[in-house]
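sry for the spam today, last one i promise. struct tokens for design, 218 residues
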């Protein structure tokens, strides 16, 4: 019997993709994760995450889905979609790529049953047992493993963007002053703004200010 865990990294930043990951292991081998010191990625140093990332890839089946700003904006701005359902569809993709008998999901929605039902309805294999919880990355080792995979992959994407544009914009989170300065300076610069989530207030406030200024000039 294989048990899987699904978690995400980068749901909240204004810059870069959201990365969702699945990790799966035989139920009888789950103790190996505890021996490694697996826990929620936010509780680990970058160095420790990198070390565990390699080991998890060796002992677990893993897969990731990367959701880039354009797709996120489309879901957030839609009248019939949102970020939670986008995340749920990504979860379905991951379970299809790495089939498991049981999957534990860290749930972004306040309505656990609705989220679970949405995923169940979209899965071809209806026999998969779904466990949908809040803070699953803290309470389940296999979800902690998935959170590490997601976080390291997200960090790699951020470093890739920095290399491509030749600018250090910090973490990509709106709470980061370096990210704030970058967005303020480059929000409408085409080669940079494609990496930004234009449905986020951090970006929209600069667009709004520009629109107001243009109207005033007119």
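last one done:
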């Amino acid at each position: 019997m294989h048990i899987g865990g699904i978690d995400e990294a980068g749901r909240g930043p204004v810059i870069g993709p959201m990365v969702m990951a699945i990790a799966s292991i035989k139920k009888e081998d789950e103790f190996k994760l505890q021996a490694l010191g697996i826990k929620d990625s936010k509780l680990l140093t970058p160095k420790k995450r990198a070390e565990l990332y390699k080991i998890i890839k060796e002992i677990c089946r893993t897969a990731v889905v990367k959701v880039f700003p354009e797709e996120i904006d489309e879901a957030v701005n839609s009248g019939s979609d949102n970020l939670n359902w986008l995340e749920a569809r990504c979860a379905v993709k991951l379970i299809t790529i790495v089939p498991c008998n049981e999957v534990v999901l860290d749930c972004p929605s306040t309505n656990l049953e609705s989220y679970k039902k949405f995923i169940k309805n979209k899965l071809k294999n209806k026999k998969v047992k779904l466990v949908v919880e809040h803070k699953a990355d803290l309470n389940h080792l296999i979800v902690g493993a998935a959170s590490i995979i997601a976080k390291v992959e997200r960090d790699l994407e951020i470093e890739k963007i920095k290399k491509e544009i030749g600018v250090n914009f910090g973490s990509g989170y709106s709470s980061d002053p370096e990210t704030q300065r970058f967005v303020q300076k480059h929000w409408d610069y085409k080669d940079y703004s494609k990496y930004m989530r234009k449905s986020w207030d951090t970006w929209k406030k600069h667009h709004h200010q520009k629109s107001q200024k243009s109207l005033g000039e007119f």
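Residues 211-218 have pLDDT under 50 and may be disordered. ok im logging off now
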